[in-house]
Fold each of these.
Amino acid sequence: MVSNRQKLLISFFAMFLITISSITSSIQLSYGAYAKAPLSPNGPTVNDDTLTVEKIADDLEFPTSMAFLGPNDILVTEKTTGKVMRVTNGIVNPNPVLDVPVANGIERGLLGIAVAKQPDGKIYVFLSYTESGNGVDGSDVTSFVEPLGNRLYRYEFVDGRLINPVLLLDLTAVPVNGRGEHNGGKIRIGPDNNVYYMVGEVGGHRTQAQNILTGPPPNGLGGVLRITQDGGIVDPANPIFGKGLPLNIYYAMGIRNSFGMDFDPLTGNLWDTENGPAAGDEINLVFPGFNSGWYQIQGFVDDDILEHGTTENDLVVFGSSQYADPKFVWDTTIGITALKFLNSHRLGDEYANNMFVGDINNGLLYRFTLNEERDAIFINSTYPGNIDLLQDNEVDDPKENQPLIFAQGFGGITDIEVGPDGYLYVLSYTGSLFRILPISDSIKPGSPPVVSAEEETLRNQSVPAVILGIDGDDSYSPNPIEINVGQTVTWYNGDTISHTVTSGADGDPDEGTLFDSDAIIPSQYYSLTFNQAGDFPYYCIYHPTMVGEVVVDTPNSDDSDSDDSDSE
Ligand SMILES: [Ca+2]
Ligand SMILES: [Ca+2]
Ligand SMILES: [Ca+2]
């Protein structure tokens, strides 16, 4: 309903109105689900006084996954460039070991990597990426070229290069809904030496693999796929889901999207993280034949958060496939990503074989312990804070997260690995690679806080506001925030998860046009100067029920404004 002329006026007005302070480094608009937590200005920290966080490398470009070739020798995939970079003793080699052409819109790109050393000394490196349709990086964005596919390749690592590519899997990357989302991409080598590849539903595909009874047969999307390292079918005489491609390569189905999976070093069980739409981020035990329930069920089946009214009796069944509830659920999504078991005692015995998971919205690293049988999550007395509310294996309110938070401030986390040194490595989309290790083993001094004097002054002169958490029009305090033209408001996030300060309201076509903070991580600030009078409603993109308003008045203008004021 907005004319082009109005749009022009609005965007001009937006430029005129807003001065983003130096506290926020980017004016790029986030628009919702893909908003990512920035790096904490103080650097990441770990909530155990005996441990510390070291930065290993910097200046990677949107890194997505990593795999170790050896001690202090790491291959890292870059999402948008399609480059595989090599990080040796903390130095990023400027020459990539491989550079492939990728479609890179939204969640497309070079996504996954796994290394498998062979008995004969050969080193196989498996890569998953959304291959560009015309050999040019990003042509899906710049010239709407359809990608060739979501592809799994095997390379050989020889003399510092990746050579001899063999295409093992070729799945569609063309979305049904026009968006480049849910391409999954993680790769693991299982205890059986087979290759496990996670792929999402790729932009709204609706087949029987998404539990649509009347849908077309599965097309390879929306599950964990398993093949041999040569691209063969595992045990073709006894497939889990059924005979013939692609059914005979499914290991699990009914998965919306995932950015993390790992094998429990003690049991060999596969676990994954899965992303819910607006609710229901999950951790699952992925047994052979696991059906996670999407598109009929997300989160616990009894909660029916999708409001489809479906139960496990309504799901598609193949062979011995079986639905199972998640082992842990976040009612409010956190953008859950990587998952890794710490198969080491190097951080202390209490953390050995714990499960660690990351998120993209908050930059938090969460810790989980399992029960004795290791088939369920059991939060025990070694956690700080109140664990009573976690005994239902569900974070119903974000404040329940607190005991689970092992470390914070990484910026959105894309991968977690354990090095040959037994330390925990954490990769951030911001371009940095960190590791967590005992202070006594650390060779680098802790990083000092990086808050400039200018920022500090701005904060002190600002009108303070606090983000309290998800609570309707009590989510931001005070509400409304009443200021005069030219004043700056600084919001402090006092909650345990990230929130945004985004102009407009949910569903408003102009949401975020005037201002958009992107993710404000816990304990961080966001400042905005208002140079125009008016009422400015705002909300949180992640949690749209959170609403507030800034009322900007013109001081000493009683004459001109008196009529309006009196009429209220
Ligand atoms: Ca490239
Ligand atoms: Ca599920
Ligand atoms: Ca709970």
Amino acid sequence: MRRGRRSGCFTIVAVHSTARGPSLGGCRLRHYDDARAAVRDALRLSQAMTLKSAVANLPLGGGKGVIMAPAPELAGMPAWRDDALRDFGDTVEQLAGSYVTAEDVGTSSRDMETIASATPHVTGLPRRLGGSGDPSPWTALGVVTAIGVCCERVFGTPSLEGRTIAISGLGNVGGRVATACAEAGATLLVTDVDARKRSLADSLGASWIEPGEAIAAAVDVFAPCALGGLLDHDSALRLGAPIVAGAANNQLAGDDVAALLAARGVLWAPDFVVNAGGIINISVELEDGGYDPRRAGQLVRGIGDTLARIFDDAARRDVPPLDAALALARARLAEASG
Ligand SMILES: NC(=O)c1ccc[n+]([C@@H]2O[C@H](COP(=O)([O-])OP(=O)(O)OC[C@H]3O[C@@H](n4cnc5c(N)ncnc54)[C@H](O)[C@@H]3O)[C@@H](O)[C@H]2O)c1
């Protein structure tokens, strides 16, 4: 944690694990009320990145960066923002490659270019600079692949033709998931707190529902693609779909909700398995030979095999898929630590 010499703000990097390779995780730029909250966020999110990369079998550890904007309006001021990003680059550079940064909530691939002026340990640069660009299409590809695997388990076929799917959040990832599901012949119920997303719904022939209705919708699949923490003991009991598979991070309010869902016969695909497409795409950037979108597509589709393996393990051990996914991640970490 360092105070930037240009911006005066705190820049924070949490390196949770380097057992499998350099710790990689996005840089979040947002307002926090106090530095402790910013540090807590960095620590919590870096741990999640360790699990995500290990379960995806990537040669990466888990880390996270946070730029703490002391006031909300600063994040939108170009001069302050530029200084803060360069200060963050200095912090990354101090870690000499044990942490590699990427874009996250509040930062873009253009911001990665600014950070790259202070350190080479940056991924997610625009494609024209040899980077892997926007991760969202790859995250969406992983989500759609995962939905197919779940449908195969529950309905006996991975086809989305004729399936009903509720999608909550039509942003960078959810919008693409909706488009792909519509193209695959699914009937969609969609929602977003941003009413401007209605035009996408109309263009896809999807029915618009209110945000509060998505969880209880009587559909085949619920795909949460907005915020985390939406599945708690109450909402898990109201869930209308036998499958939950979506992009949102930290979907469960607590790990115990996984057992509740399993007891209700709901197949919940662990979020950190489903939404790994973005980080898988970034990992290709770090491979010898550099970024190759074909290789990225191949690896992201591998999320389907990983998920199938987790569901098999969970069924064999009679535990929720969350337990099987965590066990796989921990086994890979233990293997790497020798
Ligand atoms: N972008 C990626 O590559 C990526 C990778 C891994 C995980 N994720 C996770 O996936 C989720 C979506 O990411 P994104 O990049 O599409 O974000 P985004 O900000 O582009 O889209 C989120 C959308 O959800 C909507 N929304 C917010 N609150 C809502 C609510 N209560 N109900 C319905 N809609 C709501 C927003 O209006 C927005 O349209 C996030 O949880 C993110 O952390 C994204």
Amino acid sequence: MDLEKYYNDPVLIAQKLIQFNTTNVSEKEIKDTPEGPCIMFVKELFDNIGVESEIYYSDLEGAKDRPNLMTKIEGDGTRNIPPLLLYGHLDVVSTEGQEWEEDPFAGVIKDGYLWGRGAIDMKGEHAIFLGALFKLIKSGRKLPYDIYYLAVSDEEADGEWGMKYLVNSKPEIFEGIKYAFGEIGGFSLHMMGKKFYPIQISEKQVTRMRITAHGEAGHASIKCTDSAVEKLSLAMHKLSTKNMPVRITKPVELMINGLADGIGGLKGSVLKILLKPSMTDFILSKLGNAGDLFYPLLHNSINITLLGGGTAINIIPSSVWFEADMRMVPECSIEDGLQDIKDIIGPDFDIDIKMYDQSGRDVDMKLYDGLAEAVKKHDSEAVPVPFVLAAVTDGRFLQRLGIQSYGYTPMTFPKDYNFTNLSHNANERVPVEALTFGTETLYDYLTNIYQGEF
Ligand SMILES: [Zn+2]
């Protein structure tokens, strides 16, 4: 295969990555279309220009189809600067049940857009990372620090084949890394007449749990006065209808102050009142749709997703349960999160934590100003702001190793472009211009700005 054409064209890279169907079908299933061929293509690109990569497989059965690739672009070793990690996933979510105007795996370029599943989540972003790195390698220039590039499998499920595995079982490969750039951030968002560039500094935390109620058991013919079903259904009703308390955290404070300063005027001042806990919910209720965007950043929240209990239709069960997915604001401890639940449902329940991915602690803003400077240099209209993601990314695993991950893949989008509506949806597409903009901006950051921070 003629690989030369890819090295100076991030659009061709993104198109090729999209053409590998890497749909992540389910958490544990071995799929017909795993990430393997896509990640091996990236390896070939590095091999072909003389840069070696390591491939890591998880311990799970079938792991050979779901590799992870780590590449090191060595610096000149002249200065003691921590290496930087550019990372992302190459799996994508399913297109099932979605009506696409174009084949989601063809990589069609039409009307200035590259279409396809993964265009913005996150094969386009990989193309930006790779575009900048290939430009650097091809230039023959050595930077005063090392750059790592990591492409992982399985982000769209739980990372068991990918980042979660690497962080838990191969932490040594991250040795010395303090900062990383990953997905969701650094791209433009037109709002209230401004062109914001939210740079992700932190994200919410996920915990999943089973909550069990106990009560009097018996035959279905008796009158039951202390039933587990009644207790559980009351608890479910309360959890589904009551708000958890306002929790103001440092990263969200940075975000809201940044947005308020960017917007300015009366609207900016109103936004800042969100940070006064006694006023938060009142202001949210006045903000309409915007309130829905800020709500999850200012409260823990929980959704009940599974229900169970009982053994037979004619027996009153002694216990019944539900399972729930809770999202906690950054910096919130699990103890405080559980307290929010107990304050709503009361103390008479067993709560078993099934999973907790701690993240979002101690945000390190050291690189933020430089990241903002890079987008401003390449887009004179840019108003960068710190940003906290209500969802989660693989960055949460890196956090455990003390690595600060920023969501930073610079892209410029037209006014009518809506990243959130296109991600995971039909007709996912990325402006071709966004990929070249991203490559140039990131290259500038890597070659001119990062080393200046140390
Ligand atoms: Zn993603």
